[in-house]
Amino acid sequence: MTKSMTPATPSMTPQAVLTELEPVAEANLNRHLSLAREWHPHDYVPWDEGRNFAALGGTDWEPTQSRLSEVARAAMVTNLLTEDNLPSYHRLISTAFSRERAWRTWVDRWTAEENRHGIAIRDYLVVTRGVDPVALEHARMVCISQGVDDPTGTGNHAVLHGVAYVTFQELATRVSHRNTGKVCGDPRADRLLTRIAADENLHMIFYRNLCAAALDLVPDDALEAIAAVIEHFRMPGAGMPDFRRNSVLIAKHGIYDLRQHLEEVLLPVLRQWNIFDRNDFSGRGERIRDELGAHLDKLAVDVVRFEEQRDRALARDAARRDK
Q: Which residues of the chain are modeled with pLDDT < 50?
């Protein structure tokens, strides 16, 4: 690790940070618009499988109608309910950013793109009868009614914490969608979730570039926000019904687990930002960086412990099935 004698960079107010970063936001907005590919949810839904439910003279849902495994259902519902909380995310990101100029254009564009994800996944699940639509609607009402107030887990909703959180969260969501598609056993679901994951990746790049610019602008403050978000990180759906049970299933079967969180989300982004080789941190920033390194080392140990426990649990499950 390169040591530095850089004097501490003066802190800036959130509004001052937004003003300084606005040209970066505008440039990355234009980049995003040049790369984003138009797509339509209805093109990803097998409408010919649809049929009426009992209210219109058809048959209501029952478990035997679903062709998804228990793991695939848990992952699809978790992913969908996460997308459903978009009203809260729009409110939070509008508060952290601004309703002016490039910031407003980005927030509204991002919201419109994210809204497609929930539309497409719900249509697929209802048309294919992959999950109980009544239970799904009850869960949606719970999620949106309680909303999301502090997804960062830090109590700080300002721009630095916000942009750090969404960088990691968008990448985590991309990984989760991509791996969910693989376990569905349906190439149409895989195609849909691959398309959604591509959106999430472009969103992540926008936020990652903003956070990189923030690190250049206020290195110590940006690093402090990044470290706090990593230490307290949780997915935004933590309050949804059955989240703990479904998260265990998702982690147990490799859709999104601690190793993926560390090796496919946290470490690649930190390398992209050159966190551990920068020389523009003051003594304060270096102390934060050392603490972050220790936290990542602990996560690596936790990964091994989790995988040992998971292997034992999977072995027990296999033994029970063989009896």
A: 1-2, 4
Please tell me the predicted confidence (pLDDT) of residue 57: 97
pLDDT at 2: 47
Instruction: Report the 10 Å Cβ neighbour count for 260.
Output: 18
The gap from C-alpha 296 to its chain's centroid, in whole angstroms, comes to 19
The angle at the Cα of 187, spanning 185 to 191, to the nearest 5 degrees, equals: 125
Report CA 117 to chain centroid distance, whole Å: 13
Token pair of 116 as six digits: 């497609």
Q: Per the structure block, which two tokens stand in for 20?
A: 């300084």
CB 206 within 8 A of CB 32: yes
- Residue 277, exposed/middle/buried by CB under 10 A (0-12, 13-18, 19+)? exposed
Maximum CA extent, the chain? 75
